[in-house]
Design a protein that fits this description.
Its EC number is 3.7.1.22. This protein is of the alpha/beta class. The chain folds into three domains: 4-207, Rossmann fold, CATH 3.40.50; 217-377, TPP-binding domain (Rossmann fold, 3-Layer(aba) Sandwich); 387-571, Rossmann fold. Helices cover 37% and strands 18% of the residues. The chain has 24 helices and 23 strands. Helix 1 (9-18) runs parallel beside helix 2, helix 3 (66-79) packs parallel to helix 5 (100-109) and helix 10 (247-257) runs parallel beside helix 14. It is globular. The termini are far apart.
Length: 616
């Protein structure tokens, strides 16, 4: 008979997590970087005590907001290219529901994170317990059911032995390149404390390494034939290139074949910005260099991308009627989108085999030369909009230019929602793979500061720069205090345009009146005048408000020498965005309106809709 050890369910869970390993650069390390925890009555006695017992092997970190700590955990996984990840535990009710937005973020972006929310009593004797939401028609329902549609795997643990298969399944999902995403194990609070005789084998150390799927022969042959027949081939590099750590294979393929590359938000930094074949951002927030090639391309090799609407210009960007898309992806669902030729494989393996099969073949020199000229033209346009200025309210692009000049390409730059993703995707000159960290799959306001904290935990020796708007800052800023508490320095550049400037511009572009976005256009008795520097200082950060681009560059130089989180605030213009580059985005305009501006916008919208691909 196998040996057993008597533990509570929570103790078995935490001991198991502490024994899961991976290998990074030939060195064995724990696959879980730790557990974020905010305790309440639904998890403090069970999971809380269990985490205390393994605190040396599996560190626990305290946060100030459940959604924020989950963002930090997710950013940690992304910064580690999904090779390592974290868990997050909360009490029941509001604590658990605060993590659902983060779960959706991880689900959309295919990022690993383990959620461990407390749940109601399995025995139901004390029902309804504090924070329990009762369903009048379903005695098994819990608010944690909200995690189901945004989890790759969901399980509710109602008996202590159920944790055994649940943990094994959780690890399979978290480490699988195709299935990767959030896992939720909903832990009934009485069951957390119940004991069971667990087999000792459950706690044996296990090393998890990424599965690298090689392409099917027939799919590879079809992809090679399509590329060899191309006159105007183009590669779109998505996040899968980075997660597979396939940048070298990508560079080898495109250099050997002379194929220009463009990058999605998730794939930016797959190649350094100064690579001659890197046309940078593509799509709605794309460069003119990339988008004009995408319009003409007859074969598009889409590597590790979901091909979301910002990448494809709402499927109006690719204008070559005879084009072929090759979907190189670990996930079949993504590989076959829009009738693509699927090439189901790990990005590194797939690119390597394509390189070998294409050896000796090159794209037509006129196409490659034309691409490089377009890049030069774009760089000239980008330099103009990012140049220094004495304007009282500089543009986002001018702030980006200042950060780039002061900090260089050696930092890791992080951002999320609002206007900054569009400007940074076009204009930021990324260096090493993973140095550009965008959350633009779910475009979650409030991700920025907490995400920066997670990146810093993954890259403690690197300078992490967070760029955030005033709207996102006000939504979720509490982890500034956590970064100070943990001694994890961030440099935060806060652009204050006094409202939701990005959506205000979109509102105007669709014919809408200026309404409810900028603070001045919202219902108010008194206009808010937030002293962001004083607020950040109250959380323990070094903080300063600067009055110009020149002052910002000086402050950034000083921030490099600071040993704790620094917040630099600058007022910006809410109406200005970079006109160069970009592409139409499908945002539906009302068919009927009493306002002529909306009717004019609807007419233009219908004209643009005619250019969308239908059924492709």
């Amino acid at each position: 008979m196998s040996k057993t050890i008597r533990l509570t369910m929570a103790q078995a869970l935490t001991r198991f997590l502490s024994r899961q390993m991976t290998q990074i650069d030939g060195k064995k390390v724990p696959i879980f970087g730790g557990v974020w925890a905010i305790f309440g009555h639904g998890n403090v006695a069970g999971i809380g005590e269990a985490l205390y017992q393994v605190r040396d092997e599996l560190p626990t970190f305290r946060a100030h907001n459940e959604q924020a700590m989950s963002h930090a955990a997710i950013a940690y996984g992304k910064a580690n290219f999904r090779r390592r990840f974290m868990a997050a535990t909360s009490s029941i009710g509001p604590g658990a529901l605060n993590m659902v937005t983060a779960a959706a973020l991880a689900h959309v972006n295919r990022l690993p994170v383990l959620f461990l929310p407390g749940d109601i009593f399995a025995n139901r004797l004390p029902d309804p317990v504090l924070q329990q939401a009762e369903d009048f028609s379903d005695g098994t329902a819990s608010v944690n059911d909200c995690f189901r549609p945004v989890s790759r795997y969901f399980d509710r643990i109602t008996r202590p032995e159920q944790i055994i298969p649940a943990l094994n399944r959780a690890m399979q999902v978290l480490t699988d390149p195709a299935e990767c995403g959030p896992v939720t194990l909903s832990l009934c609070q009485d069951v957390q404390a119940e004991a069971y005789d667990y087999p000792e084998s459950l706690f044996a150390e296990r090393v998890w390494t990424p599965r690298r799927l090689r392409p099917d022969r027939n799919e590879l042959a079809a992809a090679v034939a399509a590329l060899k027949g191309a006159k105007k081939p183009l590669v779109i590099a998505g996040g899968g290139v980075l997660y597979s750590q396939a940048s070298d294979e990508l560079a080898k393929l495109v250099q050997g074949a002379g194929i220009p590359v463009c990058e999605t938000q998730g794939g930016k930094s797959s190649l350094p910005d100064d690579h001659p074949l890197n046309m940078a951002a593509v799509g709605v927030t794309g460069t003119s260099a990339a988008n004009r090639l995408a319009e003409e391309a007859d074969v598009v090799l889409a590597v590790g991308t979901r091909l979301q609407d910002f990448t494809t210009g709402s499927w109006a960007l690719f204008k070559n009627a005879g084009r072929t898309i090759i979907g190189l992806n670990t996930q079949v669902f993504d590989a076959g989108k829009h009738r693509a030729l699927p090439l189901v494989a790990d990005a590194a393996e797939g690119l390597a085999e394509l390189s070998a099969a294409l050896k000796g073949w090159k794209a037509q020199s006129a196409w490659t030369d034309n691409a490089m000229k377009g890049k030069t033209d774009w760089q000239t346009a980008a330099a103009k909009v990012t140049a220094s200025t004495n304007a009282a309210y500089p543009s986002d692009a001018q702030v980006i230019g200042a950060v780039q000049r002061a900090m260089g390409s050696g930092v890791t730059l992080l951002h999320a929602a609002g206007g900054l993703p569009g400007e940074l995707h076009k204009l930021w000159q990324a260096g090493a793979p993973g140095s550009y960290h965008a959350e633009y799959g779910f475009s979650t306001m409030g991700y920025e500061i907490a995400g920066g904290l997670g990146v810093k935990m993954a890259k403690p020796d690197q300078e992490v720069v967070v760029m955030v708007g005033d709207g996102s800052y006000l939504m979720l800023n509490s982890e500034i205090a956590t970064s100070v508490m943990l001694g994890l320095k961030l440099t935060i550049v806060l652009l204050d345009n006094r409202g939701y400037g990005c959506i205000n511009r979109l509102q105007m572009a669709t014919g809408g009146a200026n309404f409810n976005n900028l603070l001045k256009d919202a219902r108010h008795e008194v206009m808010p005048d937030v002293d962001f520097a004083a607020h950040a200082a109250s959380l323990g950060a070094v903080a300063e408000k600067v009055a110009s681009i020149a002052e910002l560059e000086t402050a950034l130089a000083k921030a490099k020498k600071n040993d704790k989180t620094t917040v630099l605030v600058i007022d910006t213009d809410p109406l200005v965005s970079t006109e160069a580059g970009g592409h139409w985005w499908d945002v539906a305009v009302p068919e009927v309106s009493s306002r002529p501006q909306v009717n004019a916008a609807r007419k233009e919208y219908e004209e643009k809709k005619q250019k969308q691909s239908v059924g492709d």
